[in-house]
Amino acid sequence: MSLRKLGMTTFRLLQITFLALVIADLWAGLPYPGWWNILLLVLAYAVVRTLNRADHRIGASREAVEVAPPVTGRWSALNSPADRTPSHGTHAYGQTYAIDVVAEPEPGARPGFRVLWPLARRSRDFPAFGRPVLAVADGTVVRAVGHQRDHLSRTSVPGLLYLFLIEGSARELGGVGRIVGNHVVLDLGDGTYALYAHLRRGSLTVAEGDRVRAGRRIADCGNSGNSTEPHLHFQLMDGPDPDTARGLPFSWHGIGVPRNHEIFDAPTTTPQSA
Which of 7, 24, 150, 226 might form a disulfide with 179, Cβ 3.0–4.6 angstroms? Predict the structure, then answer.
């Protein structure tokens, strides 16, 4: 087991121990002040912070890897590394340079955020849902998970509070697989791996061990895992396991790295067969 894997396992064990002690205190009481349990959470996040600092120093020394865009058509970027790193507020799970993209086929096609109502929307209400996701380069499939459900959106204040306070914490305890949802990891060679997250259940067209060509459709965009709405989360890493990998910078052919809320058009190509 690598040092980072051990650290992430320790992180989750400390979280689980904290919850167990809180429940035990509420149920039968403990022979010490309950606030002492908070020390476990402080220690847990200290472990992750230490690991992430080391990861960032190493990842920042790598040049951007140029690959093809993973989608076609008109999209918009969110949580872009062109605006800040780590793009998602953490170096954990190899997502230092990760990016989220949502389909924007025309103005108003994507439902906007609402304060209270509707609390949530169906995945099919969003234009990104079901859009093809493509291999960004020739590679080999090293991970392929496609059985998790696509849930409702979290595009209201109550929905976001539920995601951050309850659902997100539960997924964190469940491990990285529950966070990224349905996903594919491609080995692109030279120590570079591409992760596609939040894919649509049952849409994967590849399996572990398959060799794919750039441009091949490998799955559809979905809303599984720790996701607010149907979108594609894409990142490059230096290993196949997000729990232990470090994030690597990327650039898309003809596009570069779009900034937050920047609309970009990815060229339409005919997906190639393996």
Answer: 226
CA-based torsion, 89, 219, 217, 142: positive or negative: positive
The count of structural domains within the chain is: 2
Residue 172 within any structural domain of the chain:
no
Question: What does 87-130 look like in DSSP terms, one character per residue?
Answer: TTS--GGG-TT-EEEEE-SSTT-SPPPBSSSSS---GGGSTTTT
Place of tokens 């993973």: 70
> pTM for this structure?
0.82
**pLDDT, tens digit, 9 for 90 and up, residues 2-12:** 556 666 666 66
Which is nearest to 80 in space by CA: 254, 267, 252?
252
**43, pLDDT greater than 90:** no
Q: Are 41 and 145 contained in the same domain?
A: no
pLDDT of residue 139: 97
Question: HSE (CB half, 13 Å, CA atoms) of 252?
Answer: 28
Task: List, for residues 82-131, the tens digit of each pLDDT value.
Answer: 999 889 888 888 999 999 999 998 877 888 888 878 888 899 999 999 99
CA distances from 63 to 60, 182, 225 (A): 8, 29, 30
Domain that holds residue 51: 3-57
272 located within any domain? no
Which domain CATH number covers 103?
Answer: 2.70.70.10
